């Protein structure tokens, strides 16, 4: 069945605390992602990026704390990087994340749908300096979502393959080190 993303989850934009305030950033605080953190990232789940922000940085910016299992989708520079939050996480304004309604869609299923939607998201982007997918466009973006039962069945095939790919990558990374 076709759904607008806003019908199966809440679309949440990110934000960046002012870099003029060092106290908004910390080595061990609230995980904060930028699209760059996903540029060579191939795993399904992510726990943190290169930088963390403080509680004060969160309060003094438009960044929002997203719950675990949120689908993180880069919406500019570049469009279409996707990961699932492994824990509570924040993002910069280069994301339009989806907090899925799990009564309608399984987060892992939506992850695969959004990975497959990269080219379509690029086509609906706009902007002159750089292309971006707006919150409104993301909210109205349509995806095919079958019943939960069908999603579960599809995931019984996709998840082992995805996990095997991640394991092979970890093995290759260890061999290269």
Account of the protein in words:
The chain is an alpha+beta fold. 34% of the residues lie in helices and 23% in strands. It is built from six helices and eleven strands. The strands form four sheets. Strands 3-6-4-9 form a four-stranded mixed β-sheet. The protein is globular and about 50 Å long. The chain starts with a strand and ends with a helix. The mean pLDDT is 95.
What is the structure about, briefly put?
Helices cover 34% and strands 23% of the residues. The protein is built from 6 helices and 11 strands.
Please compute the radius of gyration using only Cα atoms: 16 Å
Task: Note poorly predicted spans.
Answer: none
Write down the oligomeric state: single chain
Summed over residues and divided by their number, the pLDDT gives a mean of 95
Main attributes?
alpha+beta, globular, 177 residues, three-stranded mixed beta sheet, 34% helix, single chain, 11 strands, 6 helices, four-stranded mixed beta sheet
SSE order and pairing:
Blueprint lengths: L1 E3 H4 E5 L11 E2 L3 E4 L11 E2 L4 E3 L1 H5 L11 E5 L3 E7 L4 E2 L4 E5 L6 H10 L1 H7 L10 H6 L1 E3 L3 H29 L1
Parallel strand pairs: 4-9, 5-8
Antiparallel strand pairs: 1-11, 2-10, 3-6, 4-6, 7-8
């Amino acid at each position: 069945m076709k759904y607008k993303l806003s019908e199966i989850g809440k679309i949440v934009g990110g934000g960046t605390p002012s870099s003029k305030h060092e106290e908004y950033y910390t080595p061990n605080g609230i995980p904060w992602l930028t699209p760059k953190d996903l540029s060579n990232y191939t795993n399904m789940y992510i726990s943190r990026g290169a930088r963390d922000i403080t509680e004060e940085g969160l309060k003094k910016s438009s960044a929002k704390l997203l719950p675990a299992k949120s689908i993180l989708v880069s919406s500019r520079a570049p469009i279409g990087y996707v990961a699932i939050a492994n824990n509570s996480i924040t993002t910069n304004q280069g994301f339009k994340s989806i907090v899925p309604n799990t009564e309608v869609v399984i987060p892992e299923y939506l992850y695969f749908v959004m990975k497959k939607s990269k080219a379509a998201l690029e086509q609906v982007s706009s902007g002159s300096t750089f292309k971006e997918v707006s919150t409104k466009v993301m909210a109205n973006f349509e995806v095919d979502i079958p019943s939960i039962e069908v999603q579960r069945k599809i995931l019984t095939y996709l998840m082992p393959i995805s996990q095997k790919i991640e394991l092979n990558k970890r093995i290759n990374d260890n061999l290269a080190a």
